[in-house]
Amino acid sequence: MINKQRHYYINYSKIDGPAQKLIFLGVLIDTGEMTLSLPDRKLADFHGLLQTFQNKRRATKRQLESLIGSLNWASQVIQGGRSFMRRMIDLKNTLKNHSDKALLNSDFSADLEWWLKFMKTFNGRTCILDNKPISSLQCDACSEGGCVEDTLVRVAAEYRSRGWAESTKRLYRFQLKCYLSFCETMSIQPVPVSTDDFSLYIAYLAHYKKFRFCTIQNYLAVVKHLHKANGLKDPITDNWHIKHLLLGVKRDIGDAQVGATAVTPNMLLMIKKELNLCRLYDLSVYVACLIGFFGLLRPGNFLFKDKHNPILRIEQIGSIDDGFIITFHKTKTIQFREKQLNVVIPQITGHPLCPASALYRLLSLHQILGSNGQTPLLCESVIKSLSYVNFISFVNDILANVGCGDKLTGHSFRRGEPPLPSRQVCQGNAYKILVCGKAMLI
Question: Any idea what the Cα angle at residue 219 is, between residues 207 and 161, rounded to 5°?
Answer without folding.
Answer: 165
